[in-house]
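Attaching the record inline, Q. Sequence:
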Amino acid sequence: MSQYRFTPQAVDDLFEIWSYIARDSVQAANRLEVAVYDACAFLAEGPFRGRTREEITQLPLRFWTVQAFPNYIIV
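Structure, as predicted:
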């Protein structure tokens, strides 16, 4: 099993997203959080998953849309 870790900024971002959604529904916020963790685990198993976005950055970053929540992207 491959591992991953969040940067401190990513931890803060995920908490802010969770808190925002939880104002309306804690259950929805929890579903998003689980989907993000699942996507990260999936990406850790195949580090070349996702795609580069040269129109956004020339850095060697890959972008992955959280499947159940397409408004959220993991970089």
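The two ends are 20 Å apart (CA to CA). The mean pLDDT is 95.

More tomorrow.
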